[in-house]
What does this fold into?
Amino acid sequence: MAAIVSVENLTKTYGSGFEALKSVSLAIEEGEILALLGPNGAGKTTLISTICGIITPSSGTVTVGGHDILSDFRAARSLIGLVPQEINLEPFERVIDTVRFSRGLFGKSRNDAYLDEILGKLSLSDKKTSKIMELSGGMKRRVMIAKALSHEPRILFLDEPTAGVDVELRRDMWDTVAELKADGVTIILTTHYIEEAEAIADRIGVINKGDILLVQNKAELMSQMGQKQLRISLAQPTTEIPPELSEFDLTLSEDGECLVYTYDTRGEKTGITSLMANLQKTDLQLADLQTEQSSLEDIFVGLVKEPA
It folds into this structure.
């Protein structure tokens, strides 16, 4: 697929000297769902705010649908819908009026049939004439999405779309995102929820301290979860791995009390039987055995973990 958003060597440094983005490069493919994971302060919001034209970059280039966000900002911005983290709605305004107003801001002619369709897909049809103040928090988030879609954008940015909502509503939002993708909308979402990325994303990106650490197809990442670790606790610590075990992919814990063997559960042979047979040929005494399955969360934590 062609890249509908192209980011090259993007940086953002504030007057204080803080580097929010450090030479970020990223290509977002048309029609995909990209989940951007990262801890607080990682640069997620800064990145999408820069792409959307809210923050001016220090250097680098961004194009949206072939339009430069600086030299051709009107054309670039017209292709983008943004749902920010904060719910910022006029409490006394009716749902349909606030959505109409957003459409008008982009110079679009009135099209109530289209807006009714959007409200229907977001389960807001029966709230069309309700005042914003009468809605639940979850419904207000849906109105924010309707506003972002009101001018018929090709790209939708969702910044922490399910923050603070319950599990049931979160799953409803996932279904909504899937329907939008089916309609051809490219979706980029930031999230703290690992399961959210796992449930709906085509690709997953990890950002930390302004750096993109990884952008990978979800299926490829999931394949890494086929790996397991066998942790061999020793009765007495050792300072080195015995030569009898050198053929195995083993690591020794810092305290010397544990051997860790990584293997692929999908392989024809795990090698555990041979490992245990060879272990008996050494002077090491076994105290306990444990297996651990790697997960997307493990991968994420491992990437953003501070060095000791």
User: Anything to note?
Assistant: The mean pLDDT is 87.
